[in-house]
Amino acid sequence: MNQAFKSLGLALLINAASSASINAGQDSHRDGLVDTIEALMQEGHFPGAAIAVTRNGEPIHISVHGMADISSQTAVTTQTVFEIASLTKQMTALAIMTLVSDGELSLSDKLGKFIEDIPEDWAGISIRQLLAHTAGLEHRFERTVDGVFLLEYTREDMLASAMATPMVAEPGTDWHYSDQGYFLLGIVIEQVSGRPFAEFMEETFFGPLGMTQTHLLDQRRIVPDAAQGYALHDGKLERNRRVWQFELTSHFGVMSSLDDMMLWERELSDPRVIDAAAIEATWEINRSFSTGASCDTWGYASGWQAVVRDGMRVLTHGGYAGTAYIRAVDAGLSVIVLTNREDTAESLSPFALAWATAHAMDNSLPRDGYRCWE
Fold first, then answer.
1. DSSP label of 32
2. Residue range 306-320, pLDDT digits in tens
3. Per-residue confidence at 109, pLDDT binned at 50, 70, 90?
4. Could you tell me which of 105, 224, 240, 326 has the fewest CB atoms within 10 Å of its CB?
5. Mean pLDDT of the chain
6. Pair 344, 10: CB distance under 8 Å
7. Residue-level pLDDT at 178
8. If 0-12 CB within 10 Å is exposed, 13-18 middle and 19+ buried, where does residue 289 land?
9. Residue 232 burial (CB < 10 Å; 0-12/13-18/19+)?
10. What pLDDT does 242 receive?
């Protein structure tokens, strides 16, 4: 099956000015979906995108659009390698839950069990709180010079910087999205497994699943089919200059292709390698948010934002590099969107593509996403 997915990329090679789509199984893509995607891409100045919809893990719609690299006029294919950014967090959370399932770790364990000489304020932080962003930790924590990132960050540099960063709340008292927390989860995984994070992820997940294009960020690595990253500034595209190197990237660092992410989604939907209980454990809401009339409940689980509406669960997460992932787990429908334009408050979100695609395939899903606070 892996080879079938890989060969799919060859069938979808496109020229510089076109897009292609394929449909499989009994579901066909709805009329006008590709046109809708391309209109949103133009509105949001997305250079390129690779999009898949799966039903119970099997692809029912795949389309590729635009440029992986504008300067060389290289088109996006299903084998184009993107930075998936914070979509990494659901993988890191699943690594933690796998260790829990194996009896090597408990969600109630305190951080001090795995890291020596922690700040006094960290004493109450549990693994569950790190997963749920309720540990009271700041989001960004990297050392900078006049607000500019350094070129290299070792694991030790990052840990020292994390320890020196003031907390924003006492552990367990508030919700605050935190890259720092998921960086620390990477250290926990290394301490418990006795292996570097990248090695653990390759041996536990990527290798067994046949995800041959998936790896942790390494700026020195020559990556075939890599997408160039872009940012929107004053209404114009420019290179995003994401060239800094982090030794440990459990909070944002996975690189992957649409072919490989479809293999990941197939495993989440029909586990053959990963423990099913560990997968479902990442869906449990750890921190509920105030809910209006439009949702039963919603909150943050472990690497996923989770919504329950009319008894149906929907998981979502995005990545700053321009990615979006929707999993309507009870309906069996998932949407993966990989783009190469950064997601900022000033620009159209990759979720605009994801929700429009999800709605076209299943009109019970909202075209503009859930607004659970209303």
1. T
2. 999 999 999 999 999
3. very high
4. 224
5. 92
6. no
7. 98
8. middle
9. buried
10. 87
Residue of higher predicted confidence among 38 and 29: 38
Query: How crowded is the C-beta side of 68, counted as CA atoms within 13 Å?
Result: 23
Give the span between the Cα atoms of 9 and 173, in whole angstroms.
47
Checking if the pLDDT of 5 tops 90, the result is no
Q: What is the pLDDT of residue 7?
A: 34
Q: Using the Cα atoms of residue 326, residue 362, residue 53 and residue 341 in order, give the sign of their dihedral.
A: negative
Residue 291 has pLDDT above 60, yes or no: yes
Q: Where are the beta strands (DSSP E) in the chain?
A: 19-22, 48-55, 58-69, 74-75, 81-83, 144-145, 148-149, 152-153, 215-216, 230-233, 236-239, 245-246, 254-257, 287-288, 297-300, 305-309, 312-319, 323-328, 333-339
Rounded to the nearest 10 degrees, how much is the dihedral formed by the CA atoms of 166, 171, 177, 182? 90
Rounded to whole angstroms, what are the CA distances from 341 to 62, 175, 185? 19, 28, 27
Structure tokens at 189: 């995984």
H-helix or E-strand containing 211?
none
Identify the band that residue 6 occupies on the pLDDT scale cut at 50, 70 and 90: very low
> Residue 74's CB: how many other CB atoms inside 10 A?
17
Instruction: Please enumerate, as own/partner, the contacts of 34-42 that have beta carbons within 8 Å and a separation of 24 or more.
Output: 34/63, 34/65, 36/356, 36/360, 37/63, 37/65, 37/353, 37/356, 37/357, 38/65, 40/348, 40/352, 40/353, 40/356, 41/65, 41/66, 41/353
**Residue 353, SS3 per DSSP:** helix
